[in-house]
Amino acid sequence: MKYATLAGLSCWCPIYIALILLSLPLPLWASFPLQSSPQRQITGKVTDGNGEPLGGVNIIIPGKGRGTISDFDGTYTIQATPQDTLTFSYVGFKKVEIPVSRQEILNVQMEEDVVALDEVVLNTGYQQLPKERINGSFVVLDSALIQRSVATDVLSRLNGTVSGLLYSGGSPEIVTHNPNGRNPGILIRGISTIDQNVSRSPLIVLDNFPYEGELSNINPHDIESITVLKDAAAASIWGARSGNGVIVITTKKGRKKEAMQLDFSVNFGTEQKPDLWYDRNYLSAGDYIDIETHLFDQGYFNSYLQNSVSYPVVTPAVEILNDLKQGHISKQQAEQSLGVLRHRDVRNDYDKHIYQTALNQQYHIGLKGGAEKMTYSFSVGYDKNRHNLKRNGYQRLTLRALNTFNPVKNLEITFGVNYSNNRTDRNNQLNFGSGIQIGGFTHSGIYPYAQFAGPDGTHLSIARDYRTGFKEEMQQAGFKYWQYRPLDELYFRENSSKINDLLIKGSLKYRIAPFLNAEVLYQNERQKISNYEYFSNDAYYTRNLINRFSILNDGGSITYQVPENGGVLNVGEYDWNSHNFRGQLSFDSTYGDLHTVTTIVGTEVRELKTQGFQRTSYGYEKQFGTASTALDYSTFLPTTPSGSARIPAPDGAVLGRLNRFVSLYANVGYIYDNRLSVTLSGRNDGTNLFGVNINQKITPLWSAGAGWVISNENFFRSPALDYLKLRLTYGYNGNVYYGSAYTTGVYRSSYLTGLPAISNLTAPNPDLRWEKVKNINLGIDFRTAKNVLSGTFELYQKTGEDLVEPYPLAHNTGFRESMINSASTKTRGIDLTLNSKNINRSFKWNTTLILSTVKDEVTRYEGEVARSSIQTRMIVEGRPLNSVFSYKWMGLDPENGDPLGFLNEAVSKDYEGIINNFEADSLVFNGSSMPQFHGAIRNDFSYKDFSLSVNVLFKGGYVFRRASTSLNYPDLIDGYANSDYVRRWQKPGDEKNTNVPSIVYPANSRRNTFYNYSEVLVEKGDHIRLQDIRVAYNLKSGLGAWLPFRSCSIYTYLSNIGILWRANDLGIDPDKAPNIPLLHTLPNPFSMSFGISASF
């Protein structure tokens, strides 16, 4: 397997190395003393109120940029003068300052600060404020909670940690070339949009600016905190991109007067092979052969077997049955051969030859610190994952540097560089189910008795595309080897994607007055994606293409219309380049003891330019990088075995997009006597995405909020309650439609004429505008005495307005539909977070509960409801956006096992009439396919140096449509197999024990459609899942005293452990439940990781 190396830094390598070299000396500067004085060694021990040693306490000498950190057993050593003062600080404890004087031993006992434990600094991406000043809805995750998981990507670490956030999965290795269409698998407080071209994902902000690159570029080990903004008051400052919430990621930084700290972490993980036997969309070889035998006896395969023109493929069992019919073999020989096939199971071959145990590795090293007038932070990360599909993998190299300087009084300069180099290998695309198809007219899925390798490991061929006898005959005539051996394809095909991402940022911040700052920020990000797919000359795709376009002449010679030598190369190159500029004034002042005012006002300009191309080359010689160009793509050429076709033409399309945004924004906050607070926020966005009529208007997005800290009132006297705050916010967020208000199309050269051609995509609409989401949020924050119980309770309502939807146009316009702002939705719900300290002695037990409810409905929709939408998503006013509708089920006909429906107020088998009577009132509404409530319970236990954390997730109040068997015999051998086949009705009386109808021949497609979309196949999705367990041992005393670490943790992390309870009785994982047999979705395999993290 090939992986990216430092050589993959491409053209940015010299630039980045220079920037790194410029940054590296900074820690050395920080360690120099500012002045020379007589010094002596000061030692001591730091403990908590119970006398337990505290490791990792920051000990600094203010004004000298020198310090240290206490060791595992709480001891420390530092050089100081008698005139110095030592400052001791530790998260959750009150700061301690002690003059050195003549003492040489300073033992310190630190007092726990209950209030400080609850103090959280909120980063909105524009300003940092204590949470007491914020009236909006937000959640802040600190580094410890983020690092609890070992996932390669950032967003999956949010799963089960944030109320209101629903994580539906996603791969960090997904690579696209559409920056607007990425789907990280996260929803915050449901969905407030309808059209697929409107982003449903939250806005991702990295260090103050929207992040346009692939999310896999961000290394979780570089993150200091993550802030999730959920309502208008918290997120409206981001304007038209905040309708789905905002996730603000803040990376690690050095602190002034902080001693140099070196952090190191490494972990290794394994992931089991997927459980192929879980898949219900599978039939045993015996059942499959029985179906083939039945169809053979009905004459179904006659048109295949007698076709001497196109020689369509048939399976080995059908070949055996045909040989028996033709008298080539005896009945005993046929039964013996079929008996061998009946005892095979292709899943065994998949498990042995296609899949493997996945291995994941993560390495990270970081350096940070600071002096009186500067800070520094530098890190390197490397990830290497071996996928559970052989020859597939993922690799990531990340480099990051961030420095701040104060060259003169009141001026702060910040400069940072992030670099990421990713590579994803997908050489193995033989995944179970859909990875191998045998082609032909109807046969698409692989037959269950296929065999990939013999007992000695020899790669075996399977039937594909054409009859085996025809292929052998053509090979004898001089054609290329035409058989298909799946295991060969593992080595004859290469598929990879590379991402190089370089982000450079800088800022100037000047303090005009103690209460007024001016700041200018700029960020440039360039990302290059390279997709590479190569079929060697030995690959089946190449051989099949060459043979199909080869002609056997009368004299026995062969004419090759596709190059006989070389392979086929498909490449795509995509560049993203974004510029972000922001100018901002910040005001923060306190008047007397009663009034505090904070204000920011600024402007922002952003541009995102994307461009790319796709290309196909034939006869590509990998060694020399050459390809054939003299191919005829316009003419229908004769093909073998029959007919004519064009050679697949290189696309040659050039893709491009230019999005520009200009914004003005302001935010004002006022606090009276630490009791009453008011916040106002507004933003006006302009963009080239919308119509000219809209850009000429000012339509700001705004919010207002009020807060009342009841516990600070004189009348509040409650010994049990330390803190109580009531919050109310109201305002508007926005959603971006990533289509266009103008006529758009794809330009290319016609492969027929060579002349320019265009394909229309959208009709113009000069009034197209932002989608708006109205937010109302009522929240209560509380904390009991000694922080035994704390939490947040919130009620919210989101109303989507001016939502984009397709509106049908008259045919004479030249367009099928136009996108207009006319739809609306309403979403209501509750977010609850509870934190409890159940036991707080030497043995500690803390519990965190998060619970969210969400109920949505479409309140206005003018688009057409297609008849086929019951199979995907049917939008109906008054129902949830993701409603599941089904045909009413009346059981089985006891005489023949036909499914019974309901039509015109009577039981009916008029399937055509039932399906065509496509009114929502005639259907059964089963519920929403999105969970109506979800959450998690995390229990954290610790005893001395040991800790245990267990996270349990739950979802409920939703349904899913499960897959079942086709009712048509031909479909069963065409990839629509399901284990429900064995439960089918076969004789009178079976209807008492099964709901699976009889299988019929010839096919009745309407009968089949009715059954597969009837209410009998809808199941409840409610379930409880044991998501993960983390066990850790902290080396901070005793055993670890001789080690050179300041702190060290050894841990084990288990994930995807299993479902504890589910509402359905079929053992189906609701998160992995395909609704058609063609899909083969398997549960996430169990994984185990071991790691160590240390600070020096």
From TrEMBL:
<dbReference type="InterPro" id="IPR037066">
    <property type="entry name" value="Plug_dom_sf"/>
</dbReference>
<dbReference type="Pfam" id="PF07715">
    <property type="entry name" value="Plug"/>
</dbReference>
<dbReference type="InterPro" id="IPR023997">
    <property type="entry name" value="TonB-dep_OMP_SusC/RagA_CS"/>
</dbReference>
<keyword id="KW-0813">Transport</keyword>
<dbReference type="InterPro" id="IPR023996">
    <property type="entry name" value="TonB-dep_OMP_SusC/RagA"/>
</dbReference>
<keyword id="KW-0998">Cell outer membrane</keyword>
<feature type="domain" description="TonB-dependent receptor plug">
    <location>
        <begin position="131"/>
        <end position="246"/>
    </location>
</feature>
<keyword id="KW-1134">Transmembrane beta strand</keyword>
<dbReference type="InterPro" id="IPR000531">
    <property type="entry name" value="Beta-barrel_TonB"/>
</dbReference>
<keyword id="KW-0812">Transmembrane</keyword>
<keyword id="KW-0732">Signal</keyword>
<keyword id="KW-0675">Receptor</keyword>
<protein>
    <submittedName>
        <fullName>SusC/RagA family TonB-linked outer membrane protein</fullName>
    </submittedName>
</protein>
<feature type="domain" description="TonB-dependent receptor-like beta-barrel">
    <location>
        <begin position="529"/>
        <end position="883"/>
    </location>
</feature>
<keyword id="KW-0472">Membrane</keyword>
<dbReference type="GO" id="GO:0044718">
    <property type="term" value="P:siderophore transmembrane transport"/>
</dbReference>
<dbReference type="Pfam" id="PF13715">
    <property type="entry name" value="CarbopepD_reg_2"/>
</dbReference>
<dbReference type="InterPro" id="IPR039426">
    <property type="entry name" value="TonB-dep_rcpt-like"/>
</dbReference>
<keyword id="KW-0798">TonB box</keyword>
<comment type="similarity">
    <text>Belongs to the TonB-dependent receptor family.</text>
</comment>
<dbReference type="InterPro" id="IPR008969">
    <property type="entry name" value="CarboxyPept-like_regulatory"/>
</dbReference>
<dbReference type="GO" id="GO:0015344">
    <property type="term" value="F:siderophore uptake transmembrane transporter activity"/>
</dbReference>
<dbReference type="InterPro" id="IPR012910">
    <property type="entry name" value="Plug_dom"/>
</dbReference>
<dbReference type="Pfam" id="PF00593">
    <property type="entry name" value="TonB_dep_Rec_b-barrel"/>
</dbReference>
<dbReference type="GO" id="GO:0009279">
    <property type="term" value="C:cell outer membrane"/>
</dbReference>
<dbReference type="InterPro" id="IPR036942">
    <property type="entry name" value="Beta-barrel_TonB_sf"/>
</dbReference>
